Amino acid sequence: MLSRPPTKITLTPEDILAYEQRKLSRDAVREQHMHSSPSQDTSGSTIENGDTSIEQDVSQDLTPAQQTRAARMQKTRLDREARMGIGGGGGSRG
């Protein structure tokens, strides 16, 4: 087995500030949704009415590989729901 030297990761103050701003924005959007619509899932994972703005804010903090995996999982879930006849439809099969 080959060993590689550890990769150095350096964070600048701008990186930290940008992350904190995204987090505050995401929390504000989530809080706004919690108070505006009683028909949402309070677990914080998804919103029943199909609004994806929170999911988009969360995806900003992911690496490209994590975004690809999340998109693939979402497509799989939507395909499965379309086959079962639940969800909002919107299937791309035809």
Secondary structure category:
mainly alpha
Beta percentage is: under 5%
Q: SSE order, as H and E?
A: HHH
Cα separation of the termini: 49 Å
pLDDT averaged over residues: 75
Into which percent range does the helicity of residues fall? 55-70%
Please give the number of β-strands: 0
What is the radius of gyration computed over CA atoms, rounded to a whole number of angstroms? 18 Å
Q: Main β-sheet, in a few words?
A: none
Total helix count?
Answer: 3
Low-confidence stretches: 45-51
What general form does the structure show? flat
Structure, described:
This protein is mostly helical and 94 residues long. The protein has helices spanning 13-36, 53-59, 64-84. The protein is 55% helix and 0% strand. The radius of gyration is 18 Å and the shape is flat. The relative contact order is 0.08. Residues 45-51 have low confidence and may be disordered.
Set out the fold topology.
Elements (H helix, E strand, L loop, with lengths): L12 H24 L16 H7 L4 H21 L10
Question: Which short descriptors sum up this protein?
Answer:
3 helices, 94 residues
Task: Explain briefly what this protein structure is.
The protein has helices at 13-36, 53-59, 64-84.
